[in-house]
Structure formats: C-alpha cells, structure tokens
Amino acid sequence: MNFEQHDQQVRDASLKRAFPVERDTPEQLRQLLEQLSSRTRPREGGEADRTR
C-alpha cells in the first residue's frame, strides 16, 4: 500500500469517528428541507407583493 492510499484510509477513518453518520440522517434531512421550504414560501410571495 502506498502512502496516498494509507493517508486516505486514515483520514476517512478519523472523519467517520469525528462525524458519525446515523441511518436516519436522510429522513431527517428530508424533513428539515420540507420545514425550510414551507417557511420560505410565504415570505417569497410577500416579497413579490411588496415589489409591485
């Protein structure tokens, strides 16, 4: 194994330890995006109404 491969493996392992990824992350991300999009929709309409 060359140095670059070893270095990448060490970096990947340390990132996984530092920032563990849970199985529910995609579902949580989807819910967060839905919440954010529902909050921004009325504001976008309000901004459009103010510019007219």
UniProtKB/TrEMBL annotation:
Residues 1-27, 41-52 have a biased composition (Basic and acidic residues). Residues 1-28, 33-52 are annotated as: Disordered. It comes from the Bacteria. This is Anti-sigma factor NepR domain-containing protein. The lineage of its organism: Bacteria, Pseudomonadati, Pseudomonadota, Alphaproteobacteria, Rhodobacterales.
